[in-house]
Amino acid sequence: MTVFRVHAIDEAALAAFGGELAPILATDDRAGLAKLCGSEDAVASWPRRLVEVYLVAPTHGPSHALRSAISAAVRARCATDAIVLESRVVDDLVRNVASDAPDRAGASLLRLLDEARVPVFLRDPQTTAGMISRAERVALVSAMAAIDLGALDELLDALRRIEPAAMLERG
Amino acid sequence: MTPIGWTVVAACVAACVAGGVLAYRFRSRILFALRPKRKPGRRREPVEKRAKPPPGKSLEGALELREQGRADEALELLGEIDQGKGLRRLLRAAALLEAGRDPGSLGDTHAQLGGLSIDAARVRTAAGLVVAGDLDAAEAMLGRVNRGFEPATCAWVRVSIARGASRPDAERQALVELVFADDALARTVAARDLGLSDGEPASAAVERYGAHAFARDAIARFGATSVAKLLSKVAP
Description:
heterodimer, A: alpha+beta, four-stranded antiparallel sheet, elongated, B: mainly alpha
């Protein structure tokens, strides 16, 4: 069964992690990556250039361990308050509400389904996710308060309860 | 009607249906058998002796004409197919300049570039220069693109330049920039341009890849240097 979680994301910490990871991948610094992830095994099990972990197909099994290790490391630094949604918030439902919502709020809702909005190193290979910035989340909560959300009420509550940016993850 | 009569009627209907089905199934053979017979002595010319049909009125046709050294005809064709925007207009402006004519006759800079911004034209031309093998000119062209403009496409061109120049460190650096800017495009570039084993184009980026690659290859075939000269003229 699909589980939906809303994560609070510290955007500054996320950017800082990306700033550390980029030169490590660019210089193929395996020791540096092992230190960043706290997992030597995951790095050692990837025999190719480090950057290629994000260039092979997502279904490529051997890349999963390293991707997962990087994702876990960045989440430890910048993701908090994973709120598990009990209602079955499904993508179609979000899309339907988005189509009826005011333009900007609708666009923000759809961003919660847009994987391209989530930095590649934050993604977990086992799940899919979308993300909105803090400013987008504030505007969304404000705009959606006036709309009957039905089954999406729980999602809106979760978005209200967190302070920074939000990531909706499904998996 | 007697049972025998009914049987005869049913047999006739069945025969008609079967005949119709067979006629439909073998219609091409029947039509071939019924075709008018050619009179003796009136033989068609062998296909190979026919004049090659003129290239179609398309960008592809104009590029073929240029590759055959028929630049004037290509310019004329570009004039016919130019709809005032896009790659056709950009290449027409470049062809006019190359022919010693004023591309300003097509309008202002924006019109000459086919509606592209100067940065967009520079990125596409830089990519064309890479394919044409002029890596230094490509690097110089890309260096003039405003910082932050189409970061993924710029990183892709940098990957191509570094790969062409056999600079693995720079290639890796550019690949990281590409991954961070647009990982779906990065996977597509890795699969299609770099031939990465276990690579697979990302469906989300195939269209973006195709649009850029089409412009890149068309500019390279047209003559990326000629397009670069146009850009130097309109945005010195």
